[in-house]
Design brief:
The complex is a heterodimer of chains A (115) and B (114). Chain A is mostly beta strands. Chain A has strands spanning 5-7, 10-13, 19-24, 31-38, 42-50, 53-57, 64-68, 74-78, 87-94, 105-106, 110-114. The chains are: A mainly beta (115), B mainly beta (114).
Chain lengths: 115, 114
């Protein structure tokens, strides 16, 4: 099985712009979670989607949004970029978030730099 | 906010030695997982231990969980230079919606010197 893929791998934007990141989960996985990783804050949960519905949301401003399509692929969008949004954005997929065995498989991440 | 706190923040050992990393957390958990991350890349799942388990092994990895102390440890035996990476503990927490989310600690940066 192919792993979790994320595109693009690297992105450079300027303040005020918006960005869309894409994640394709492992085939058969219906749950997709997004995380932001920065040196200062570490790994922080952004949101999780399951069957096209946002099930959980972390403590991020409304500029961060996401969606999931019927094929389980997910996108996240950040509008009005700020310098502090520079981070590695990681996507993870899992089979069934309703069990207590929620091993998550991570993609390689998208490195976003905001200038 | 971080749930897990790893200790130490950084660890440097010689090849062949054992490496022990600890993780403490604050709230009730469903399970605890350990992940490895090589320099700026994605995370690799290492091992999951459920809240009703006390110890688990996988190859050179041994994980313990003490729910009364809200702590876990990851032991890597006979370390190799290739084990150099950051290691994160993540607690699986059931949310109001009934699903589980992972809350990560800040990680331990392990360096294994050849």
């Amino acid at each position: 099985k192919a792993g979790v893929t994320q595109t693009p791998r690297y992105l450079i934007k300027t303040r005020g712009q918006q960005v869309t990141l894409s994640c394709s989960p492992i085939s058969g996985h219906r749950s997709v979670s997004w995380y932001q990783q920065t040196p200062g804050q570490g790994l922080q949960f952004l949101f999780e989607y399951f069957s096209e519905t946002q099930r959980n949301k972390g403590n991020f401003p409304g500029r961060f949004s996401g969606r999931q399509f019927s094929n389980s692929r997910s996108e996240m969008n950040v509008s009005t970029l700020e310098l502090g949004d520079s981070a590695l954005y990681l996507c993870a997929s899992s089979q069934n978030p309703l069990t207590n065995y929620n091993e998550q498989f991570f993609g390689p991440g998208t490195r976003l730099t905001v200038l | 906010s971080q749930q897990g706190e790893e200790d130490p923040q950084a660890l440097s050992i010689q090849e062949g030695e054992n490496a022990t990393m600890n993780c403490s957390y604050k709230t009730s958990i469903n399970n605890l997982q350990w992940y490895r991350q090589n320099s700026g890349r994605g995370l690799v799942h290492l091992i999951l231990i459920r809240s009703n388990e006390r110890e688990k092994h996988s190859g050179r990895l041994r994980v313990t969980l003490d729910t009364s102390k809200k702590s876990s440890s990851l032991l890597i035996t006979a370390s190799r230079a290739a084990d150099t990476a950051s290691y994160f503990c993540a607690t699986g927490v059931i949310t109001q919606g009934g699903s589980e989310k992972l809350v990560f600690g800040k990680g331990t940066k392990l360096t294994v010197n050849p």
